[in-house]
Design goal:
Layout: H1 2-44, E1 49-57, E2 67-76, E3 79-89, H2 91-108, E4 113-121, H3 125-132, E5 134-138
Parallel strand pairs: 3-4, 4-5
Antiparallel strand pairs: 1-2, 2-3
Helix pairs in contact: 2-3
């Protein structure tokens, strides 16, 4: 019985370790992937310019209180695309990008396309993305 309890304890510890590594990997992947996308779009393909849009949202459009807002913007052939790269996407991420899109449109006078690149999408995200007009692009596809 003691051996079973010890194995169980080791499995719990292993689970914690795997979750913490996955969390760290997700953060590293998100930033690294963002830089890779920028490099491919600008340097390799030369088709568009990627920049970061930073704006002080005094009216609280995005977060319901005054705050700074940041998003990556790709401008190609006059089309403005707001891009978020996330290791995991939930409904809150969709609403946040949708609100950033509203603010961007209000400030710039241009209605942007909304795009999220991610490896994982939480349950219910696909339906809400369709409703809000947010395009979801999987980073990893199964073969």
């Amino acid at each position: 019985m003691r051996r079973v309890l010890r194995v169980e304890e080791e499995l719990v510890n292993l689970g914690r370790l795997v979750k913490s590594i996955a969390h760290m990997y997700g953060l590293i992947t998100e930033e690294g992937f963002r830089e890779a996308v920028r490099f491919v779009i600008e340097e390799v393909l030369g088709v568009a310019k990627v920049s970061k849009w930073v704006y002080y949202d005094a009216k609280g459009v995005v977060y319901q209180r005054p705050s700074n807002v940041e998003v990556d913007v790709v401008i190609k052939d006059g089309e403005h695309i707001l891009v978020e790269v996330k290791s995991r996407v939930d409904k809150g991420d969709l609403v946040e990008l949708y609100n950033i899109g509203k603010l961007y449109s209000e400030v710039s006078g241009v209605k942007p396309k909304l795009l999220i690149l991610s490896a994982f999408f939480a349950r219910g995200v696909l339906d809400l993305a369709r409703e809000l007009g947010v395009e979801l692009v999987p980073i990893v596809r199964e073969y």
